[in-house]
Specification:
Layout lengths: L1 E2 L7 E11 L5 E7 L6 E2 L2 E2 L7 H13 L1 E5 L5 E8 L5 E16 L11 E4 L1 H7 L3 H10 L3
Parallel strand pairs: 1-8, 2-8
Antiparallel strand pairs: 2-3, 2-5, 3-4, 3-9, 6-8, 7-8
């Protein structure tokens, strides 16, 4: 059973698409594992009171992956996915995705013991994620 919010809309989340350019100028995408299912995802979470959506996305990237960088103020798109809650209900979430050009990757960060991180080529990142909408967004964003 999938639940929506009280208005029949998906629940809103914000996420960061962390990227950097490798030695030969090719883009790389950083993915993290989700805490529960261990699938590859982007850093994301619920909006934060007192923070703009892009600021909340940057904060999630720091908490989940130790990333610091330049976050885009406009989303590059959004995707839908089913979030499994602790009570095992599933809720439909719409994630607004903001680009994050990574300048620094910290060794220590709040969720370092809960997640794995890996840099992927855009094609491999799109293959690694299970949400079709996120895969399409990665492919579209990385047409440099």
């Amino acid at each position: 059973m999938t639940s929506l919010d009280e208005d029949g809309e998906p629940r809103r989340q914000v996420g960061a698409l962390p990227f950097r350019f490798g030695r030969v100028g090719k883009p790389k995408i950083l993915l993290v594992t989700s805490r529960e299912s261990r699938r590859w995802v982007i850093p994301k979470g619920w909006p934060m009171k007192g923070r703009k959506p892009f600021e909340a996305a940057a904060r999630e990237a720091y908490e989940e992956a130790g990333l610091r960088g330049v976050i885009g103020k406009r989303p590059i798109g959004h995707y839908l996915y089913q979030k499994r809650l602790k009570n095992l209900d599933a809720v439909l979430c719409q994630v607004k995705v903001f680009p994050l050009q990574v300048r620094k990757q910290l060794k220590h960060f709040p969720e370092e013991d809960q997640r794995d991180l890996r840099w992927f080529s855009p094609a491999d990142a799109a293959e690694a994620v299970s949400e079709p909408g996120l895969a399409a967004l990665i492919r579209a964003a990385c047409r440099w």
